[in-house]
Amino acid sequence: MKITKYYFLYIFCLLVSLTACEIDRIPETQLSDPSFWRSESDLRSATNYLYTFLPDPTTEDVWSDDAFGTAANNISDGSRQAPATSSDYNDPYRIIRAANNIIQKATTVPATEAIQNRYIAEARFFRAWAYVQLFQRYGNVPLVLETLQENSPELTAAPAPRAEVLEAIYQDLDYASATIPTPTVLGTTNYGRISNTAALALKARIALFEGTRSKFHNYGEPTKHLTIARDAAKAVMNSKEHDLFNSYFNLFQYAGEGRQNRENILVKQFGINNANIVDNHNFSRSIETGALNGTKSLVDSYLMKDGLPITKSPLYKAPTSSVEVYANRDERLAATFFKRGDPYISATSTYTIPQLQFHRTGFGTRKYFDRTDWSNQRSFIDRPIIRYAEILLIYAEATFELQGNISDADLDLTINLLRQRANVAKLTNSFVTANGLDMREEIRRERRVELAMEGFRYWDLIRWKTAETELVKPVLGMYYFRNEFTSTAAVQLNPEGYLLLQGAQFRRFDPSRDYLWPLPINEQALNPNLGQNPNW
Amino acid sequence: MQRKIRQISSCLVLYGLLFNTVQGQDLVFNKAKNSKIAQPTGTIQLNSKTSNGNNNQLAAPVAITITGRITDGNEGLPGVTVLEKGTSNGTVTDTNGNFSLNVNGAASVLVVSFIGYATQEVAVNNRTTVNIQLAPDAKSLEEVVVVGYGTQKKENLTGAVSTVSAEAIQNRPISNVATGLQGVAPGLNVTRTTGAPGDEGINIQIRGVTSANGNVNPLIVVDGVASPGVTLQTMNPNDIATISVLKDAAAASIYGAQAAGGVILITTKQGQNGKVVFDYSTQVGFDRAINLPQRMETWQEAEYVNYAYAQAGQGRYYTDEEIGYFKDKTTPYIINPADTNNYLYYNSESVIDQVVRKTTSMQTHNLSARGGTEKFNFMASLGIYDKQGMFKVGPDKNNRYNGRLNVGAQLTKHLSLDSRIAYTLYETETSSNSVSGNGGALLHFLYRNSRNRYPTFTPEGRYNYQAAQTYAELESGGYNNYNRNFFDGVFTLRLADVVKGLQLRAVYGSQYRLGDREIFDRTVELYNRTGVASRLNNPNFYQVRNELDRTSNLQLLADYDFSIGTKNSFHLLGGYQYEDIRGEWVETRTSSLVSNDLPSLILGDDQTKTNNQGVGTYAFQSVFGRFNYNYDGKYLLEATFRVDESSRLAPGLRVKVFPSASAGWNLHRESWFNQPMPFFSEFKLRGSWGTLGNAQGIGNYDYLNLLTRGNNLVLGSPETRATYFYQNTVPATELSWETIETFNGGLDLGFFNNKLQASADYYIKYNRNMLTPLQLPATFGVGTPRINNGELKSWGWETELRYRNKLGNSFNYSVALNVSDNQNELTKYAGNRVIGAGLVSLLEGFPLNTMWGYQTAGYFTSADEVQGWAFQDSRAGVGDVKYVDLNGDNRINVGKGTIDDHGDLVFLGTTQARYLFGINLAMDWKGFDLSIFAQGVGKRNFMPSADVLEPLPYTWQMPMTIHSDYWTPENPDALFPRPYLGGRHNYLAADKWILNGKYMRLKNIQVGYTVPAVLTQKVRISRARVFFTGQDLLTISGLGKFQGYLDPENQNNTGSAYPFFSTAALGLNLTF
Question: B659 with B644: CB under 8 angstroms?
Answer without folding.
Answer: no
